Amino acid sequence: MKDILTAPFMEEFIRTTAEMYRHGWDERNGGNISMLLSESELEGLIDPERVVRTIPTGFDAPELDGRTFLVTGTGKYFKNVQYDPAKNLGLVRLSDGGRNAGLLWGLTDGGSVTSEFPAHMMSHVSRLAADPENRIIMHCHPNNLIAMTYVHDLDEREFTRTLWRMETECIVVFPEGVSVLPWMLCGTNEIGRATAQKLSLTRLCVWAQHGVYAAGRDLDEAFGLIETAEKAAEIYMKIAHLPIKNTITDARLRLLEARFGVKAREGYLD
C-alpha cells in the first residue's frame, strides 16, 4: 500500500485546513470539511474491506451508499491537522443506506466524524443533484459574514445584492447569490435538511450568527467562495455606518454579467 498521507488529495486537504485556521475562520475546534473521493483516488492507499469500526450517522442517505469521504473529526482543531492528520481526520464509507459510516482510516484516538456530519452529507446529496462534479462541503466561521447577520436584513435577495455591490468580482464569483438561514440549532438533522435545500440553489449558505457553508467541485472553489464573500462582508462592515456616495449600480452589474459570461440569479437585479 502507498502512504495515504502523500496522496495529492490529502496534501491539499491538509494545506486547506491550515490556511482556514490562519484566516481566523476556524477558531478552537470550529468548522469542518468533507471531501467526496473516487475509487481511483483511493486505489492502492487503503484496503476497502478493512473497516476499523462503524460509526452510526443517525440519518438516511441512500444516494451516498458506498461513497467514501475524507472528513474532519469532531472536537478537532484545524491547527493540529497538519501535525497529526491520522488523529484529526477520518476516511469513512457510508453503508446501510447512509445510516452507518465505516471508518477505513484515521481518527486514531477513538474520535468520531464532525458533529455537522448530517448537514454535510445531506448537502452532498443536494449538490450532487445540482452538479455531479461537486465534491466539497466546507463549513467555517468567518468574522465579517457573521457580524453582517447581526446588522443586515436576512432577506436573501438583499443580502446578496449588498455583497455584490461591495466588490466588483462578487457577482462573477457567485452569480447565483447566497442563501441565508436564520439561527438554528447546529449539529441536528433539521439544520442539515434546511442547509441542503438552500444549497440546491446556491453554493453558499450563510448561517445567521454562526457561520457559512460552501460547496464546490474542489477545495479551491469552496475556499474561494468563502474568501470572496467574507472580503465583501468586511468592506460592508467598514462602511455600513457611513453615508454612501458611490456604489456599483445594477446597470454596472449587468455590464459584468455580459463581460464575464455569467447570469445573475433571476429577479435579483432591478
Structure description:
This protein has 2 domains: 20-115, 3-Layer(aba) Sandwich (L-fuculose-1-phosphate Aldolase), CATH 3.40.225.10; 117-265, Class II aldolase/adducin N-terminal domain (L-fuculose-1-phosphate Aldolase), CATH 3.40.225. The chain is 40% helix and 17% strand. It contains 11 helices and 9 strands. It has a 9-stranded mixed sheet, with helices on both faces. It is elongated, with a radius of gyration of 19 Å. The termini are far apart.
Question: In terms of topology, how is this protein built?
Answer:
Layout: H1 8-22, E1 32-37, H2 39-42, E2 53-56, E3 68-72, H3 78-81, H4 85-88, E4 89-95, E5 100-106, H5 117-130, E6 136-140, H6 143-151, H7 156-166, H8 170-173, E7 179-181, H9 189-199, E8 204-207, E9 211-216, H10 219-239, H11 250-260
Parallel strand pairs: 7-8
Antiparallel strand pairs: 1-3, 1-6, 2-5, 3-4, 4-5, 6-9, 8-9
Helix pairs in contact: 5-9, 6-10, 7-10
